Structures are given as C-alpha cells and as structure tokens.
C-alpha cells in the first residue's frame, strides 16, 4: 500500500469528497461549514471524517473509509491526525454499534444518551429513532 497522507481538506476540494460520499456513504454529505479531514493515497481521497460545530460542542460525523482501504488502521490514524480539531471543542460522536471499539481505541468513551448536551441530544434521538443503531460517545483526552 502506498503512503497515506492525513490532512485537513482544502475547501475547494469539497466536490471531490462529496463524490466519494455519494459512492460509498450516500447519507453523508460534506458541507461548507464543517471541518473535514481526509486520508489520501496517490492524491486520491481514501477516507474522510467531518466535524460539525453545534454551539459550544462539535460532532464527529461521516467517518468513511472506502472499502478496499478498510481494516488497515486508517480510521484510527485519521482520528489521530485530526486531534487538533478534536481538541478545539468538546467532541461527541454517534457511532454505529459495530464501530464502538474503533472509536474507543481513538479516545472516545461510551456515554448514556441522557448525558448528551441538549443541543445534540435531540439529534441523537432523531437518528436513533430512524432505525440507526447508534451509541453516543465523548472524546476524553486520557481514555486511550
């Protein structure tokens, strides 16, 4: 596998990352008001994660690793590379149940939905009630 480069996405490349979401994660679409971090190999985006600011917190969302690059540690490395972003504000994520351990390895801890701040609690319940099996998580600096 070629060298993987991790970096914040240049906003001019938003259409490129959205093509990847359209192909591999149609429910996810990057928006201009999000901070987007990517992993690239041979100048092609192979993974992406977005951070959405919601008042005084942020939500890690839209983690995507294209299928042929999965299970190679890229998601964890992308989270590590985006550490400066994660540390800007309290950071939550709503992890699919099967990805709980991946996020735990990266410093997130599972929390009760009732512990979520009100500004994202409603969003969590809306997603969960639409049939998605999600787990609320919070980034804790010393948890890994």
From TrEMBL:
Pfam families: Acetyltransf_7 (PF13508). Residues 1-141 form the N-acetyltransferase domain. InterPro entries: Acyl_CoA_acyltransferase (IPR016181), GNAT_dom (IPR000182). Gene3D superfamilies: 3.40.630.30. This is N-acetyltransferase.
